[in-house]
Write a structure and sequence with these properties.
9 strands; globular; 9-stranded mixed β-sheet; alpha/beta; about 290 residues
Length: about 290
């Protein structure tokens, strides 16, 4: 059994006090982990915060209480950018990492650009606060399924979103989109009056923002014959173009036999990817 240091005990007690004092929502203690619900990632007394932000702009934080400098996985739910709720993927629990699940505002109440701004604000919150909980801000990974995969790619590749919050997106340790659009999202196309099947690439497409200096970019899709609307092929094109410009670590995994709803078969792979990237960082640091 791992020893519990006095520092860990004091940190956990202090965090529980802060969660209760600031009204972050319910905190759930399990062995060696704390799960805190409904932490606001926007300043709720700011003039820019409206009632819809106060309804949606919250995240949940699940983190180990007996590990220092742990990696953190920020995860965005799917739902076509029009629905969905934050909920931790069970497989991500007890993996010696923190997991941050994020709610964001939804279309059609807001434009997709505002959704991406919410995502950027939540990522910035993690960069600004994760060390207070024992994490390492150099070990922050971003992932999500479907619409969440699109969010992952857009906020990680288009530097403007995080620059607004004084975060360099290149400092993200890895981007791991699951079955996300590489072209302009069909909800954006709907905003433009286009058919969901009209192929469109503009500044709202991840592939528009390919960069050699981007973080490690590891895509996962379902089987190309079972996936949604050519999703595998979009990601395959994305992989090829990232290779063409010289990006050093772009990969694409295809989960044979699984369609678009491939979160749970993908979850073990996400953990393996994080472990592999962490191992590479340690190896390079020892050279």
């Amino acid at each position: 059994m791992a020893k519990i240091s006095s520092t860990m005990i004091l940190r956990t007690l202090a965090l529980v006090f802060c969660f209760n004092f600031y009204g972050f929502g319910q905190s759930i203690q399990s062995e060696n982990y704390l799960h805190v619900l409904d932490i606001p990632y926007r300043t709720m007394d700011s003039l820019i915060v409206d009632s819809y932000m106060k309804e949606r702009c919250f995240l949940d934080l699940y983190f180990p209480t007996q590990i220092d400098d742990f990696p953190t996985l920020i995860y965005f739910h799917g739902g076509s950018l029009t629905g969905g709720e934050k909920s931790i993927v069970d497989y991500f629990k007890n993996k010696k990492i923190a997991v941050v699940d994020v709610n964001y505002r939804l279309s059609p109440k807001v434009q997709v650009s505002e959704i991406l701004d919410d995502a950027a604000a939540s990522i910035a919150w993690v960069f600004d606060h994760i060390e207070n909980y024992g994490g390492d801000r150099s070990k922050i990974y971003v992932s999500g399924h479907s619409a969440g995969g699109y969010i992952t790619s857009m906020v990680g590749l288009d530097k403007d979103y995080l620059t607004k919050y004084n975060i360099d997106s290149d400092t993200i340790a890895g981007l791991i989109p699951l079955s996300g659009h590489a072209i302009t999202h069909f909800t954006v196309r709907k905003e433009m009056g286009l058919s969901p099947n009209q192929i469109w690439v503009d500044e709202m497409a991840p592939i528009f923002h390919i960069r050699k200096q981007a973080p490690p970019y590891i895509m996962v899709t379902g089987d190309r014959n079972l996936e949604l609307l050519g999703r595998y092929e979009e990601n395959a094109f994305m992989r090829r173009m990232m290779e063409v410009i010289g990006h050093p670590n772009t990969q694409l995994f295809e989960l044979q036999g699984y369609g678009h709803n491939m979160v749970y078969p993908a979850a073990p792979l996400v953990i393996e990817i994080i472990q592999s990237l962490e191992s590479n960082i340690r190896s390079n640091g020892n050279q």
